[in-house]
From TrEMBL, chains A, B:
Residues 422-514 form the Non-reducing end beta-L-arabinofuranosidase-like GH127 middle domain. SUPFAM superfamilies: Six-hairpin glycosidases (SSF48208). It comes from Nonomuraea aridisoli. Residues 19-410 form the Non-reducing end beta-L-arabinofuranosidase-like GH127 catalytic domain. One of its GO terms (biological process) is carbohydrate metabolic process. This is Glycoside hydrolase family 127 protein. It holds the Pfam family Glyco_hydro127M.
Length: 638, 638
């Protein structure tokens, strides 16, 4: 079975990548751009910046203090290798296969005889191995190497990459094992890499080492830093932590590993702990987009209800990591709240980052951009995570390769199976050829232009002698969804809508999801969003761009009428609004409310999907729109 | 004349420190605590942490890479010396004088023969001189040394500190002069130090060097950094910049120096530029408290209208720097908007930082604290600027000594004179013994318990044969102020209320300022404050602390009725409010407004002055209070 995540047991089983294929649509086109543009784009940038040559320098003994890139640049090569491995298996493209061999060979030459593999530490002119566990990222890099090896192992079997990864994993187990150095890495990732590599190889030791790293964490194992040990989740043991905090990507990679270890060890206490953390973090520390990370300062979560739209960090990598956690939790529990969040994150974080041509990316994904970004040149490395424009590459460039490996394996997240049948979670044109226990075929073709329309047509592609259950996820937002089968149409509730039959080839089941644009209100405790409303369309969050306004200058003084009904248009929605004529004060804290200002004419405010913002040039942007005075009644409870 | 700032000309003249003395009250007591506790506290911490020994190590040739403290720790010693110098002149206390000599002697031993003086660069085991202009703070440190020397020179005349400062200034002029290294310091401060030292010594060269540093800036003279060159104001020349941006303390120290240079050079273009920057920054980038700096990431200004209360940085040092700028602008222009902002900043930033015993300080001064801080031990060095509790000392400890030098010289900012007479700007119990041109005495005693009450009694202390004008500042917030003189009471407008007479000793003028608590509303463009209202009392901003609530758990769901009238009570005010019974959502973005939630009983919400917050223990705190639904009408223009 080929899939990024294969727990030994759970409420649902992932389908193998060979059993699902995207045949077009919103995600199929993005997966194609990823294959034809992004993968080569990433390799060329890493060559150009010397991040690949860093491996050659270790092999050639020419390392020195002038090493380019951050201590984690090795991991970008490994994330690209992972993406290439999934992609090669998907299409069998020889160029992709050649790239894997090319990169693997260069990486392999840099491995020390004892299995240690890192281009930033432990060689001439470099700090000693493991001399900076807080910030050195050595084990973090290795974790991504193991994930790349998992992709290779499950799609092509043992090869050079798998073998060198095995030596690297053995080295880690020797150095950091029960009798070894009682350290952990400042950036979790080795844990999730070891757990999956252990599952793929049937190597208990690796899963056990992951557990050891997890249990060492949260006890002040790492040095304190000005940001505090919460930054790398070394403040509270993961079993005791009530919520995610600190650096978002760190917190989420750690949580993903915790689910893996909990499942493999039957450790329900640990699983419950991560579920509790997910619940509170999603209820109080997550953006409407599914984005996580409220602070630029530490790329981290804020306190409960601290969700500023303008300074939202919502790093693309945190979106990837959030999907990693929710997918593992779904497989373990079968609770669709997890696949609901995955859909939200896919459409509003993952889809937002890459440019249409797959050669530029958002790093941070704020919900409000005050000042249009400065267009970045195609050859410009952006030192800024917060440009307001997509950049070809970043000084800290974790996001592009993370998007690449996610899109290359996206079909792994569409559907699952259990003893009863098939569950479809994400709707895209695709073919699913699964096999249920006892060799029963569960084959369907999905046709849809979702999320533009809400009609999802599922056609049975093979006769099934015995009945099986087709379950279709009805998102939590989809009140009023309907299901048509055998000529009958019935309402279906959010959750899994089930159809159980002895299906015949050609049978059709159609799910109708209500994707008309709708208003969404923030909880009154989210101070930064008080008196505002957002518009969503199906799984897509919509936004306003200043360039789409008749008068872009009115962007800061626009208010909308929440009693009007958002109107669907092909490129998004229209909502009734007006701009206020606000005086320019010398002091912005007057003795009375600005109640007397004149409002302009009401007009149709154009909204587009958030994932499209800044595709038409730099712009001010906002998702949450201030509501006009009459509309304010009721925005806070009476 | 002894005063921190003595321009060669301007619309108003500062009074000498010898001409004004605080005799008690709000500021007199704080100045006393500063003298008896804070100064010794600062010296003992710098001794304990080795920041003073750093000077001995340079003198003894025992420097090395193990130097404790940041590159700017020297400046803390200099800021303490400046504070001690003002304090020694104020009281003539021999212990204070002894401390100055003690510290001066240790500093003097560390000066290189060519005048270079720095404990972090240029000696054995250290990076070379001026090898990191962006972050090395060498010239920044020297700037503070010069300000300390100014204090000494103007209060005691030339002494060892003045002589070594002169050598240091000459060194800077040699190295960075017109024919020298065309560099600038990443942290402005040398400019304001050189300008004032030049004025104090009548050394044109120093003022000219300050001008040179100013004009070199804003042209990409410094290396770019991930935060961008705006961080240290090297992005746009100061004459062209429309607004303050980047690191707030850097921006404001630079602006203060620009006013000095503009005044000394009669450079009206430069003066207008700083006035423009002040206007827009105060109108769009300043907090109700007068605090400046919206972002933790770079301790910097945000974009226009970006003023989050919870993540407000509002560094104490930025408050000090803001007063430096506004005071210089007032002296140059005589516009009371500058002294208005000084009052706001004094009561709500400067007074907020130190603990009652003068041995703990706030570094950041947010307007909303979500989670109570962890009490810091008296011996604990806080690595965090954002603790929510006052800390005895900080890893980056710029604020305590900045507060110390400000409080030690606070009486310099109370009043000014011009050819017509005396202007009183800040109201505190004090004696003013000024002399107008032609030797005319202008002597008054001020009695008041302002800001607790609004009655300010000014008693003439000496007969004046010829008439002169007593001008009293009426703050912009003081609508309805009255003035009583010669038995008659008349309304006075915000601005300067003038009384011109041939005063006789014993004459009394009484200003009545309306200090009843009042609602203050945010501009609708400040997104983070939408739907909220604050309460002010005279110059004090009030706040709510969770520990003062009957049910602290209701802090996050409290709303107030803005149509009620805030009621004055001795310790602050009471305003009508209630807590909402809000459901705990699994997802905080519902399809409808939270309009149905039950509200609890209305009760009197206790508010206290913001400068008192966290004095009674850690607490959640907020200045801007969400308004109840009915009250929301009018908070955004209809």
């Amino acid at each position: 079975m080929t899939s990024p995540v294969l727990p030994s047991h759970g409420r649902a089983r992932p389908l193998g990548l060979a059993q699902v294929s995207l045949t077009g649509g919103f995600w199929g086109s993005r997966q194609a751009v990823n294959a034809t543009a992004t993968l080569a784009h990433c390799e060329s940038w890493m060559e150009r910046l010397g991040w690949l040559a860093n491996f050659d320098r270790v092999a050639d003994g020419t390392t020195g203090p002038d090493r380019p890139g951050w201590s984690f640049s090795d991991s970008e090569v490994y994330k690209l290798l992972e993406a290439l491995a999934w992609e090669s298996a998907r299409t069998g493209d020889p160029g992709t296969e050649a790239a894997i061999k090319r990169l693997t060979a260069r990486v392999a030459r840099a491995q020390d005889p004892d299995g240690y593999l890192n281009t930033c530490f432990g060689h001439a002119g470099q700090p000693p191995r493991y001399s900076d566990l807080e910030m050195g990222h050595e084990l973090y890099n290795t974790g991504h190497l193991l994930q790349a090896a998992v992709a290779r192992l499950r799609t092509r079997g043992e090869d050079d990459l798998v073998r060198l990864a095995r030596r690297a994993a053995d080295h880690v187990c020797r150095v950091f094992g029960p009798d070894g150095l009682a350290g952990i890495c400042g950036h979790p990732e080795i844990e999730v890499g070891l757990a999956e590599f252990g599952r793929a190889l049937g190597e208990e030791r690796y899963v056990e080492q992951a557990r050891l790293f997890l249990d060492r964490r949260g006890r002040g194992t790492l040095r304190d830093i000005p940001l505090g040990r919460a930054y790398f989740q070394d403040d509270v043991p993961i079993r005791e932590a009530p919520v995610w905090r600190g650096h978002a990507v760190r917190a989420l990679y750690l949580a993903a590993a915790a689910v893996d270890v909990a499942v493999e060890r039957g450790d329900d206490e640990l699983l419950r702990a991560v579920e509790r953390q997910w619940e509170r973090s999603v209820a109080r520390r997550t953006y409407l987009t599914g984005g996580m990370g409220s602070r630029h300062q530490d790329e981290g979560f804020g306190e409960d209800w601290e969700l500023p739209p303008d300074r939202a960090y919502c790093e693309t990598c945190a979106g990837v990591a959030s999907i990693m956690v929710s997918w593992r939790l779904y497989l373990a529990t079968g609770d669709v709240r997890y696949t609901d969040l995955i859909e939200r994150t896919l459409y509003n974080v993952i889809a937002t980052s890459p440019s249409a041509d797959g050669r530029a990316f958002f790093y941070a994904n704020p919900l409000h951009q005050r000042v249009p970004g400065r267009p970045a040149g195609p050859d410009e490395v952006s030192p800024r995570a917060e440009a307001g424009v997509r950049a070809a590459w970043f000084d800290v460039s974790c996001c592009p390769t993370n998007v690449a490996r996610t899109l290359a394996s996206l079909h792994a997240y569409l559907a699952t199976s259990d003893d009863e049948g098939l569950q479809i979670h994400q709707y895209a044109p695709c073919e699913i050829r699964a096999e249920l226990p006892g060799g029963r075929p569960a084959a369907v073709d999905v046709e849809t232009d979702y999320p533009v329309s809400g009609a999802v047509r599922v056609r049975i592609a093979a006769d099934a002698p015995a009945p099986w259950t087709l379950a279709l996820r009805v998102p939590a937002w989809a009140a009023g969804a309907m299901l048509t089968e055998g000529g009958r149409t019935r309402p279906v509730e959010p959750g899994l809508a089930r159809v159980r039959r002895a299906f015949r080839a050609g049978d059709e089941i159609v799910l109708h999801l209500p994707v008309e644009p709708r208003f969404t209100w923030p909880d009154p405790r989210i101070d930064a969003l008080r008196g505002c409303v957002a518009v969503e369309r199906g799984p897509e969050v919509l936004c306003l761009e200043s360039r789409d306004l008749p008068d872009p200058g009115g962007f800061d003084s626009l208010v909308v009428d929440p009693r009007s009904v958002p109107r669907a248009v092909p490129d998004g929605a229209r909502v009734r609004g007006r701009t206020l004529a606000l005086a320019d004060p010398s002091w912005p804290y007057p003795a009375g409310p600005a109640g007397a200002a004149e409002g302009g004419e009401w007009f149709d405010v154009p909204l587009r999907p958030y994932h499209e913002w800044a595709r038409h040039g730099p712009s001010s942007m906002r998702i949450f729109l201030p509501v006009a005075p009459d509309g304010l009644e009721g925005t806070v409870a009476r």
